[in-house]
Amino acid sequence: MDSIGNVIMYFVFALAIIVFSVLAVTTKKILRSATYLLFVLLATAGIYFQMDYEFLGATQIAVYAGGIVVLFVFAIMLTHKPGEDSEALNSHRRALGLTACGLGVLVCGAALFSFMKIRDAVELATSGDYTVNQLGADLLSNKGYLLPFEALSVLLLACIIGAIVIARKR
Amino acid sequence: MYLIPSLIMFGCGVYGFITRKNMIAMLISLELMLNAVDINFAVFNRYLFPNGHEGMFFSLFAIAIAAAETAVAIAIIINVYRVAKKVDINQITKMKF
Amino acid sequence: MEILNSTIYVLAIPLFMFLFLGLVGTKMPRKITGVIGVLGMAVTTVLAYAIAFTYFFGEGPQKIDGVYQQLVPTDWTWLSFYADKLVVRLGVLLDPISAMMLVVICTVSFMVHLYSLGYMSDHDGNPEKGFQRYYADLALFTFSMLGLVVSTNIFQMFIFFEMVGVSSYLLIGFYYGLQPANHASKKAFIVTRLADLFFLIGILILSYYTKTFDFINIMGKNGGEVMNAFTSAQGLTFMGCSVTGWALTFIFIGGAGKSAMYPLHIWLPDAMEGPTPVSALIHAATMVVAGVFLVARMFPLYVLEQGAMDIICVVGAFTAFYAAAIACTQSDIKRALAFSTISQIAFMMTSLAVSSADGALIGGHEAGLGYMASMFHLFTHAMFKALLFLCAGAIIHAVHSNENSKMHGLHKFMPITSIAFLIGCLAIAGIPPFAGFFSKDEILVACYEKGLGWGLWMSMVAGMTAFYMFRIYYLIFFWKKHEVHGEHAPKDQPWTMTVPLIVLALISCVAGFVPFGDLVTWNGQALETHMNWPVAGASVAIALVGIGLATVMYRKENPLPDKLATMFKGLWTASYKRFYMDELYQFITHKIIFQGISKPIAWFDRTIIDGFFNLLGNVTNSASWGIRKMQSGSVQGYVSYYIIGAMLLAAITGVVVLCI
């Protein structure tokens, strides 16, 4: 939060996230919903960049924006006829959803607010240089990330196979 | 500061997950929630423990898992669509009994 | 000595026969199972005779200086608790009375086994249904009874007491298709079981104070110690009586239940629904004397507790008269015999109770005479009562009825049975030289020693005994010419049935000459007995009067009995209805216990207890129905509940934290 440019960028990203999240869950057209999701994800990646987590931001864009959203779009194409709207929501369900979400936001917001009151000046310490080289070395060394990393690769493999098996035409 | 958009994003995720009937829309809401959580991890790491990288790694793994989970979920949805010709959550309550 | 150690086989053989016949008997032809049962019993009987003979007349450790000792050839520890402080043993105890009981049980049981071959068959000699079961049950009963008499401790005795009850139940209910048999077996079981409850309480009280179950401790080497414990416990009182008095009275009630003493006698007449040989074995000779045996076993303690002895004495004397009075009017011969049994057992009880053990000489007789007389009478009574029952069985088998109105004048048709029955009657009436004379004489002597009133009372009952026995005898075999019912005239039964009659008749003739005073006494020392001629003469005279009266009334058909019956109508009916004891019990159980106690308890159980649990169930049920609606299977519903719940929890926590 040192330069004015950063502040402007933060507000842009935050506003994008807020607006597009709300739109993503309220729009009637499912394809639009996916598109708004893409914007939210991109804005999130922007926030990561702002926090100097370049690799995380890159992954966010590559995996989420590049992979998952494309997957969503394909799925929507496969399962929906063009121009089809989703049905109107019944009020009971909407009330329930609003209650849950409102309560959640209220409680967490209260927590956040009190937290900010306690530490109103959060200094963003300089994180130093954490290059992709170092990250890779940490990931594959005995710093404790090796096992999750390997487990994750097995999980991904299992998911690929599982997805194929489930979606396969019988 | 960064937590405010994350909080609102999470709230939207909850709302969408509860209200939408379309399973893909529900999945999108789910992604929103996951994303909010990822941001939180990254923010807490950055502001509270600037010299560690655990939060970042957690987000990284969460992104990978989210990808895997989405793939499987979409496979299931497509399968359901083949059977039911629809992707509404009400449809698959047939498996209840 | 060798043979004494094999006493355990006397028990083992019937047990084996029970298991063998019970398990594989149905796979074999009926007749063969019967023959196997009889052979097994024959072996047992021979062994028992050998043991008893060796015990009484052999040389060995059982007799030291003319005093019979108690031997324990077999002794197992069955259960042990509290680091051997509470030990339940199973074993074999040999002393004069158990050796004598071995002989009695085996003789009667063997005769009954043999007799049943004929009795349990139709007239063509084909065994009836359930033959194998019958023999298996007989073997079980024999085993239980033998186990009872050789028990080394009171706890083992209780176990076998119960087993005797069970096998009696099985045998009474042998014809389980018939309603009366079912009722009778239940009645017998419940009444004796109720009495056994008191027995158990008595055991617990007694063993709590004496710290032992073992008879041999009570009477044998360690006698002094136990006696001390016992006499010190006598000092403790409960409701005006000493605890030991209570204990012994409770134990006596247990014995009274088995021995059908008033007022627990009601099961015995009904138990006659069982097959007649069973009545002979269980309800005349063996099981019903279990109570007498029990009191005899505990005799060294009873003599210290005069209060309990007095109770036994009164109950015995009253029962003797009461049963004799009823026996005078019964028309069903088995029931008449059953009441006669009750009366005779009451004789034994009374005799035991009038006995004392202080060793002083009273009226020229040594004390402890009553005990000896009781055992003697037990022995002789078992023989002649079994004989009478088996005769009755033969008659019933021949005419297919228990009612003496269907019999009359059978003497011509069944001479052997008639003579055997006559011998039995003479024996029970106490006519010399038959067995009953000697034993009954001893009893009367013992009673006169106790007091003139007791003696006169018992003499009167003895006279009644003679009267009702000869009444039965005349009504069966004479009265008037027999009217032949059915296609064939009654005749003497096949040899399997007549041989036991003859054997038992012979024993009844000679059993009186057994020198019982030398053999069976309470302390093992020989007791010098001699005839007390005035008493003997008087008892024979009163017996003869009874017989004469019966002869006048029932020898030939005449209107005299009916006239008397109408003259004393109330008395006669009361006696015929057994003084309404059954009705009284019916009233107490149905009207008072069922209505007054069981019904409210049942109501309490149904409404309060069941109601409470039903309420629980209903609440849970309706709550579940309510909750069930939430379990819609919709993931979104679950998620919303989950989030609302989680957030409320977080909010509450936050508020609490803030407040603190």
Concise overview:
The complex is a heterotrimer of chains A (170), B (97) and C (660). Chain A has helices at residues 4-26, 30-50, 54-79, 91-118, 132-140, 146-167.
Highlighted features:
heterotrimer, A: 170 residues, mainly alpha, Four Helix Bundle (Hemerythrin (Met), subunit A), 3 domains, 6 helices, 76% helix, 0% strand, globular, B: 97 residues, Helix Hairpins, 3 helices
Protein model, in words:
The complex is a heterotrimer of chains A (170), B (97) and C (660). With 170 residues, chain A is mostly helical. Chain A is 76% helix and 0% strand. Chain A has three domains: 1-85, Up-down Bundle (Four Helix Bundle (Hemerythrin (Met), subunit A)); 89-120; 129-170. Chain A has helices at 4-26, 30-50, 54-79, 91-118, 132-140, 146-167. With 97 residues, chain B is an all-alpha fold. Chain B has a single domain, classed as Helix Hairpins, CATH 1.10.287.3510. Chain B is elongated. Chain B starts with a helix and ends in a 13-residue tail after the last helix. The model of chain B has no long low-confidence stretch (mean pLDDT 83). Chain C is mostly helical. Chain C is 71% helix and 5% strand. Chain C contains 27 helices and eight strands. The radius of gyration of chain C is 30 Å and the shape is globular. Mean pLDDT of chain C is 80; it is low at 359-365. Chains in contact: A-B, A-C, B-C. The interface between A and C is medium-sized, with 13 and 11 residues.
